[in-house]
Specification:
- About 40% of the residues lie in helices and about 20% in strands.
- It is an alpha/beta fold.
- It folds into 2 domains: about 1-110, Rossmann fold (3-Layer(aba) Sandwich), CATH 3.40.50; about 120-275 and about 310-330, 2-Layer Sandwich (Dihydrodipicolinate Reductase, domain 2).
- The strands form 2 sheets. It has a 7-stranded mixed sheet. A 6-stranded parallel sheet has the order 3-2-1-4-5-6, with helices on both faces.
- The longest helix has 20 residues, at about 305-320.
- It is globular.
Length: about 325
């Protein structure tokens, strides 16, 4: 299978390395506005260089992976779909929900498969948690706790274009909560503050946030996110039911020290960042995409599914700004 990659920044280069090692992938075609990035990928992976998205899509690729800047996602997805090329696009679908809905309407009846990158769906522990919940092992859920804490803020340029912490960070927790529990979020209340990087404050964003989500069956989900976790990259999901409780991320590389005397847990070296924490999940995700492109399985994360997590992020952003509860229906019909 011949795969095109649009965008060769941090995640694009990582995807190129992952794809080049997959048995189903025979060759890569790469394109990036920064010539040095494309040249480095060509040299490292023996990839062919295309000088524009149009040239790449016309180069006989069987599928395309979009890892370009967020504001380029809508037009690149639509160009690939118009060319009849199966698409994998990193989240989010678009920088705004209005544009995301435009993409959804354009691709819904196209017959071209589109997969949006929510890699936690391919992590073994998240998948096991989903199976436990769906299998009734925990009984009726009453509380969910989700955490994503970055070790350090992204670059200032990324912050300025990210759309805010709820849209670029918390959205992974929102998607995981929906995917694992099988429930929809009805209402949110979000708070946030700034205790660190000035560029985050300057962008009108928060570097530390908390959100209370009310699910459609009354389950309460608590989501905690931050840009300054000095001990490492911390991703956890706790699920508490009337019969049992279960946690994702409770392992020896958890970046958290115990204050309990005589306790050696966690005993391992903390996770540094998302690329080491989720390396296996990314490989599984892109393997799934090759199967989607080959027509042997449906998309495991459609545009519509990805937009549902986006609506929760939109509601949290509004709640933080206006200091009030916000329903998903309110932002969906704004």
């Amino acid at each position: 299978m011949r795969i095109g990659i649009l965008g060769l920044g941090r995640i694009g280069a990582f995807h190129a390395a992952t794809l080049s090692a997959l048995p189903a992938v025979t060759s890569l075609v790469v394109a990036d506005p920064v010539a040095d990035a494309a040249g480095a990928a060509a040299e490292r992976f023996g990839a062919e260089i295309a000088h524009s998205p149009g040239e790449l899509l016309a180069a006989g690729v069987d599928a395309v992976v979009i890892a370009a800047a967020t504001d380029a996602h809508p037009e690149l997805v639509l160009a690939a779909v118009e060319a009849g090329v199966p698409v994998f696009c990193e989240k989010p679908v678009a920088p705004t929900m209005r544009e995301g809905v435009r993409v959804l309407k354009a691709v819904r009846d196209s017959g071209v498969p589109v997969q949006i990158g929510h890699h936690r769906r391919f992590d073994a522990a998240f998948a096991a948690a989903r199976a436990a919940v769906r299998g009734g092992e925990l009984g009726t859920l009453h509380t969910v706790r989700a955490t994503t804490l970055d070790p350090a803020p992204p670059p200032a340029a990324y912050i300025a274009a990210s759309g805010g912490i709820f849209r670029d960070c918390s959205v992974h927790d929102f998607d995981s909560i929906r995917w694992v529990t099988g429930r929809e979020v009805r209402e949110v209340y979000a708070v946030g503050g700034n205790r660190g990087a000035a560029c985050i404050r300057a962008a009108g964003d928060a570097d530390t946030t908390g959100a209370v989500l009310t699910l459609d069956d009354g389950t309460i989900a608590l989501v905690s996110n931050g840009r300054h976790n000095g001990r490492g990259y911390d991703v956890r999901l706790e699920l508490h039911g009337f019969a049992d409780s279960l946690a994702v991320g409770l392992e020896d590389r958890l970046p958290l020290r115990s204050a309990e005397p005589g306790t050696a847990f966690p005993a391992g070296r903390p996770h540094v960042f998302f690329l080491d924490r989720f390396a296996a999940a990314y490989r599984a995700e892109l393997t799934a995409f090759t199967e989607v492109a080959a027509g042997s399985r449906p998309s495991p994360c459609t545009v519509e599914e990805a937009l549902e997590a986006g609506w929760i992020a939109e509601a949290c952003t509004l709640s933080l700004r206006e200091h009030r509860p916000v329903t998903i229906e309110e932002v969906r019909h704004a």
